Amino acid sequence: MKALFGFHPVRELLRHRAQEVEKVWASASGKRLRAVQELAQRGGVSLEVVASHELSSLLAQVAQASGAGSGAGASVHNGFVAILRASARSDGAVASASASSSDRELIVLLEDIQDPRNLGAILRVCEGAGVGRVLVRDRGSAPMSATTIKASAGAAEYVVTERITNTAQEIERLKDQGFWCYGADAEGEPPWAIDLCGPVVLCLGGEDKGLRSRTRGLCDGLIGLPMRGRVASLNVATAASALLYEALRQRSEVKS
Question: Distance between CA 179 and CA 220 in Å, rounded?
Fold first, then answer.
């Protein structure tokens, strides 16, 4: 049985990889407990509140089973213990698995993607196109739940995904590092008219309203797909697929 303990580690695990958590035990109260309860609920993870001595006893059993000693960690659980599923990966496994095939200079930034099936579908496209990282705005976005994992057809296990708190600050940071940021928008230029080689960030917004106005304004340009039929727009995952594979086409030609 594998476990992770402490408020911050458990919170981040629930934020980024809730699908790997079997159950959370908590003896804390107040804001920290409410924060972890909310994340557990979003990720479909069971949480049980117990007395502190019960949590220490549980952690001691885990430590003993792993050969770390009967009392290892028992006094530093800080009120939270997450029991991991047997299939849970070790930290960094996704990054190392995808490093050989991903393009570190191609990043996708997502904000307000609320449907977990859309998030999963986008992750599937990103993995197929060799995207280096996917940045997901934490607030307002779907969690990395079992539904998301299923919709990604397993791709979520191989794509480096990071939750961010402030889209504007992240875009500014990436631009300082030399990345060009393009926001997906119906009024944007077609992707084949934009140079998508080199360090590029593709920003995609939510299903209903698209990118936030501040995010759109921070982008170096807007990129869109011309619609010649009767429907006004494409599903965000479908649009992501078309945009990313045009980027892949351009980048492949440069390498060849």
Answer: 10
